[in-house]
Amino acid sequence: MCGPSKNRKQEAAVKEQDAILENQRKQAEAQLAETRRVEEERSGKIRSNVSSIDQAFSQFDDSYYNKAGQNLRDYYNPQLQDQFEKAQRKVTLDLADRDLLDSSVAGKKAGELKELFDREQQGIESRAQDASNSVRSDVSARSSNLKRLAEAGTSLDSFSNMITPEISQINLPTNYGDLGSVFGSLTNDISTLQKSGVIPTYDGSGSGAKTTNSARIIK
What we know:
This protein is mainly alpha-helical and 219 residues long. It is 73% helix and 0% strand. It has six helices and no strands. It has helices at residues 3-57, 62-97, 104-151, 160-168, 184-187, 189-196. Helix 2 packs antiparallel against helix 3. The radius of gyration is 41 Å and the shape is rod-shaped. The protein starts with a helix and ends in a 23-residue tail after the last helix. The model is unreliable at 201-219 (pLDDT under 50).
Protein backbone atom coordinates (compact mmCIF):
# COMPACT_ATOMS: atom_id res chain seq x y z
CA MET A 1 0.00 0.00 0.00
CA CYS A 2 3.02 2.31 0.41
CA GLY A 3 4.20 1.86 -3.16
CA PRO A 4 2.27 4.63 -4.91
CA SER A 5 2.96 7.16 -2.15
CA LYS A 6 6.66 6.43 -2.26
CA ASN A 7 6.70 6.82 -6.01
CA ARG A 8 5.00 10.19 -5.81
CA LYS A 9 7.59 11.39 -3.27
CA GLN A 10 10.42 10.24 -5.51
CA GLU A 11 8.85 11.97 -8.49
CA ALA A 12 8.45 15.16 -6.48
CA ALA A 13 12.08 14.98 -5.38
CA VAL A 14 13.22 14.49 -8.95
CA LYS A 15 11.13 17.41 -10.14
CA GLU A 16 12.50 19.58 -7.36
CA GLN A 17 16.03 18.62 -8.28
CA ASP A 18 15.32 19.29 -11.94
CA ALA A 19 13.91 22.68 -11.02
CA ILE A 20 17.04 23.49 -9.03
CA LEU A 21 19.28 22.44 -11.88
CA GLU A 22 17.21 24.43 -14.37
CA ASN A 23 17.40 27.48 -12.15
CA GLN A 24 21.16 27.06 -11.84
CA ARG A 25 21.44 26.70 -15.61
CA LYS A 26 19.45 29.87 -16.16
CA GLN A 27 21.53 31.73 -13.62
CA ALA A 28 24.73 30.55 -15.30
CA GLU A 29 23.42 31.62 -18.71
CA ALA A 30 22.39 34.99 -17.33
CA GLN A 31 25.79 35.46 -15.72
CA LEU A 32 27.53 34.47 -18.94
CA ALA A 33 25.35 36.87 -20.92
CA GLU A 34 26.15 39.66 -18.47
CA THR A 35 29.86 38.88 -18.70
CA ARG A 36 29.64 39.03 -22.49
CA ARG A 37 27.68 42.28 -22.33
CA VAL A 38 30.23 43.88 -20.02
CA GLU A 39 33.11 42.69 -22.20
CA GLU A 40 31.43 43.93 -25.36
CA GLU A 41 30.78 47.27 -23.70
CA ARG A 42 34.40 47.42 -22.57
CA SER A 43 35.66 46.49 -26.03
CA GLY A 44 33.39 49.10 -27.57
CA LYS A 45 34.75 51.79 -25.28
CA ILE A 46 38.30 50.73 -26.06
CA ARG A 47 37.63 50.92 -29.81
CA SER A 48 36.00 54.31 -29.31
CA ASN A 49 38.98 55.60 -27.32
CA VAL A 50 41.47 54.34 -29.91
CA SER A 51 39.37 55.99 -32.60
CA SER A 52 39.42 59.24 -30.61
CA ILE A 53 43.22 59.04 -30.50
CA ASP A 54 43.42 58.58 -34.26
CA GLN A 55 41.06 61.48 -34.81
CA ALA A 56 42.93 63.78 -32.44
CA PHE A 57 46.30 62.96 -34.01
CA SER A 58 45.06 63.17 -37.60
CA GLN A 59 46.00 66.87 -37.62
CA PHE A 60 49.66 65.84 -37.58
CA ASP A 61 50.40 64.90 -41.19
CA ASP A 62 53.29 65.26 -43.62
CA SER A 63 52.59 68.94 -44.17
CA TYR A 64 52.88 69.52 -40.41
CA TYR A 65 56.16 67.63 -40.15
CA ASN A 66 57.54 69.37 -43.25
CA LYS A 67 56.72 72.72 -41.69
CA ALA A 68 59.11 71.93 -38.84
CA GLY A 69 61.92 71.62 -41.35
CA GLN A 70 60.81 74.60 -43.41
CA ASN A 71 60.71 76.84 -40.35
CA LEU A 72 64.34 75.99 -39.67
CA ARG A 73 65.28 76.69 -43.28
CA ASP A 74 63.42 80.00 -43.18
CA TYR A 75 65.32 80.94 -40.03
CA TYR A 76 68.86 80.05 -41.14
CA ASN A 77 68.97 80.41 -44.92
CA PRO A 78 68.33 84.18 -45.02
CA GLN A 79 71.08 84.65 -42.44
CA LEU A 80 73.44 82.51 -44.48
CA GLN A 81 72.60 84.35 -47.68
CA ASP A 82 73.11 87.72 -45.97
CA GLN A 83 76.49 86.67 -44.57
CA PHE A 84 77.51 85.28 -47.96
CA GLU A 85 76.69 88.49 -49.80
CA LYS A 86 78.47 90.60 -47.19
CA ALA A 87 81.50 88.32 -47.35
CA GLN A 88 81.56 88.62 -51.15
CA ARG A 89 81.45 92.41 -50.92
CA LYS A 90 84.19 92.52 -48.30
CA VAL A 91 86.47 90.22 -50.27
CA THR A 92 85.81 92.19 -53.46
CA LEU A 93 86.66 95.50 -51.76
CA ASP A 94 89.77 94.07 -50.11
CA LEU A 95 91.00 92.68 -53.41
CA ALA A 96 90.15 95.90 -55.23
CA ASP A 97 92.14 97.88 -52.68
CA ARG A 98 95.12 95.68 -53.54
CA ASP A 99 94.51 95.71 -57.29
CA LEU A 100 93.89 91.96 -57.27
CA LEU A 101 90.40 91.66 -58.78
CA ASP A 102 91.80 89.93 -61.87
CA SER A 103 94.28 87.77 -59.98
CA SER A 104 94.22 84.06 -59.20
CA VAL A 105 93.69 85.06 -55.58
CA ALA A 106 90.30 86.55 -56.51
CA GLY A 107 89.22 83.37 -58.26
CA LYS A 108 90.45 81.24 -55.38
CA LYS A 109 88.64 83.31 -52.76
CA ALA A 110 85.39 83.29 -54.77
CA GLY A 111 85.58 79.51 -55.02
CA GLU A 112 86.28 79.13 -51.31
CA LEU A 113 83.34 81.36 -50.40
CA LYS A 114 80.94 79.42 -52.65
CA GLU A 115 82.22 76.08 -51.37
CA LEU A 116 81.70 77.14 -47.77
CA PHE A 117 78.26 78.53 -48.62
CA ASP A 118 77.20 75.25 -50.23
CA ARG A 119 78.55 73.19 -47.34
CA GLU A 120 76.75 75.31 -44.76
CA GLN A 121 73.53 75.16 -46.77
CA GLN A 122 73.76 71.37 -46.86
CA GLY A 123 74.17 71.42 -43.10
CA ILE A 124 71.03 73.52 -42.74
CA GLU A 125 69.13 71.10 -44.97
CA SER A 126 70.30 68.18 -42.85
CA ARG A 127 69.17 69.95 -39.69
CA ALA A 128 65.81 70.69 -41.32
CA GLN A 129 65.30 67.01 -42.07
CA ASP A 130 66.27 66.15 -38.50
CA ALA A 131 63.73 68.69 -37.19
CA SER A 132 60.94 67.15 -39.27
CA ASN A 133 61.86 63.63 -38.20
CA SER A 134 62.10 64.65 -34.55
CA VAL A 135 58.57 66.05 -34.54
CA ARG A 136 57.28 62.99 -36.40
CA SER A 137 58.90 60.68 -33.82
CA ASP A 138 57.48 62.68 -30.92
CA VAL A 139 53.95 62.52 -32.34
CA SER A 140 54.26 58.80 -33.05
CA ALA A 141 55.55 58.05 -29.56
CA ARG A 142 52.74 59.99 -27.88
CA SER A 143 50.07 58.38 -30.04
CA SER A 144 51.45 54.86 -29.48
CA ASN A 145 51.65 55.37 -25.73
CA LEU A 146 48.05 56.55 -25.57
CA LYS A 147 46.91 53.56 -27.62
CA ARG A 148 48.68 51.16 -25.28
CA LEU A 149 46.86 52.74 -22.36
CA ALA A 150 43.54 52.69 -24.19
CA GLU A 151 43.88 49.05 -25.20
CA ALA A 152 44.71 48.16 -21.62
CA GLY A 153 41.36 49.62 -20.59
CA THR A 154 42.73 52.63 -18.74
CA SER A 155 40.14 55.27 -17.79
CA LEU A 156 37.50 53.80 -20.08
CA ASP A 157 34.87 56.45 -19.39
CA SER A 158 37.16 59.48 -19.31
CA PHE A 159 40.01 58.64 -21.66
CA SER A 160 39.54 61.84 -23.67
CA ASN A 161 40.89 63.69 -20.65
CA MET A 162 44.22 61.95 -21.27
CA ILE A 163 44.40 62.86 -24.96
CA THR A 164 44.16 66.63 -24.68
CA PRO A 165 47.27 67.11 -22.49
CA GLU A 166 49.34 65.01 -24.87
CA ILE A 167 48.20 67.01 -27.88
CA SER A 168 49.03 70.27 -26.12
CA GLN A 169 52.62 69.10 -25.61
CA ILE A 170 53.23 68.78 -29.35
CA ASN A 171 54.70 71.97 -30.79
CA LEU A 172 56.98 72.90 -33.65
CA PRO A 173 60.47 74.02 -32.56
CA THR A 174 60.80 77.78 -32.24
CA ASN A 175 64.15 78.24 -30.54
CA TYR A 176 67.13 77.97 -32.87
CA GLY A 177 70.74 78.61 -32.05
CA ASP A 178 72.72 81.43 -33.61
CA LEU A 179 74.16 80.67 -37.04
CA GLY A 180 77.45 82.24 -36.00
CA SER A 181 80.05 83.79 -38.27
CA VAL A 182 80.35 81.45 -41.24
CA PHE A 183 82.75 83.33 -43.51
CA GLY A 184 84.86 85.22 -40.97
CA SER A 185 87.98 83.11 -41.45
CA LEU A 186 87.90 83.59 -45.23
CA THR A 187 87.25 87.32 -45.23
CA ASN A 188 90.03 87.86 -42.70
CA ASP A 189 92.38 85.59 -44.63
CA ILE A 190 93.33 88.31 -47.12
CA SER A 191 95.01 90.35 -44.41
CA THR A 192 96.88 87.23 -43.30
CA LEU A 193 98.05 86.53 -46.84
CA GLN A 194 99.15 90.13 -47.20
CA LYS A 195 101.16 90.04 -44.00
CA SER A 196 102.85 86.84 -45.11
CA GLY A 197 103.84 88.42 -48.41
CA VAL A 198 101.75 86.09 -50.58
CA ILE A 199 99.85 89.09 -51.95
CA PRO A 200 101.31 92.58 -52.27
CA THR A 201 100.72 95.77 -50.33
CA TYR A 202 101.16 99.29 -51.62
CA ASP A 203 103.09 102.22 -50.20
CA GLY A 204 100.10 104.59 -50.32
CA SER A 205 102.02 107.20 -52.33
CA GLY A 206 99.78 106.89 -55.34
CA SER A 207 102.62 105.55 -57.45
CA GLY A 208 101.42 101.99 -57.18
CA ALA A 209 104.77 100.86 -55.76
CA LYS A 210 104.55 97.48 -54.08
CA THR A 211 106.13 97.21 -50.64
CA THR A 212 105.90 93.43 -50.21
CA ASN A 213 108.98 91.63 -48.97
CA SER A 214 108.22 88.61 -51.12
CA ALA A 215 108.65 88.10 -54.82
CA ARG A 216 105.64 85.72 -54.86
CA ILE A 217 103.16 88.25 -56.24
CA ILE A 218 100.08 86.51 -57.54
CA LYS A 219 98.71 88.25 -60.60
